[in-house]
Hints:
The chain is mainly beta. The chain is built from three helices and 16 strands.
Amino acid sequence: MSSILMRGGVLQRLRPLKxxxxxxxxxxxxxxxxxxxxxxxxxxxxxxxxxxLRPAAAPPPAVAAPAVGAEAARYRIDAERSEVLILVYRxxxxxxxxxxxxxxxxxxxxxxVLAPDPAHSRWQLDFPVAALxxxxxxxxxxxxxxxxxxxxxxxxxxxxxxxxxxLLLDAARxxxxxxESQRVNDEADGLRVSARIVVRDHxxxxxxPVTLQRSPEELIASGEFxxxxxxxxxxxxxxxxxxxxxxxxxxVRYRLVALRAxxxxx
Length: 266
């Protein structure tokens, strides 16, 4: 479809523009110089704050860990067998020009203290921000049709660099993300855990569904839930006045494997 541009007070018709993606920014660009006129127009709106961070709110206070009895068992996370995936989606009127992404948590550590009464159980998890991986081909292939577009190594590296940069996770200043349980409720359809998540200098409490499988030497906790950038104190990246942006909603799928520890809970 042709475009119309005002030039010197005269409406002129432009030939169709060819669109491609910048390997560094993974954002739509135009091969012909006329696109600079459009970019200049967008720059007029640059007075708004840069996306990335929301003003830090006072984090909810951490709840004291419940006392555990002598029958409680201690399990340590097996990072090699555990998997946590964060599915990030494109959004906006130009969403077809972007891609969905799969972020994988690596180098996960932590422990679970499981008491006979679930309400007295507790857990905590940590992982280094710099260990997050983006768009591993085998993980993308397993997530269904929405994640089948092909991405080259340069585009993947650009996406990861932006994610770890100062406007989002700021890995240089905040090297780790921390999660810990606040309350554990045993409901008819499984466990429901109130968890405190600390990202950068922002803390939020969210509700997590948990399906638990237990054997004498192993514990497997699994589930999935939605989480938003807003809850984490982050602003999704966007360009062209929001016509192409990252959706606020993310979807998290996890399967945590923990092995029985020989030492008793503290």
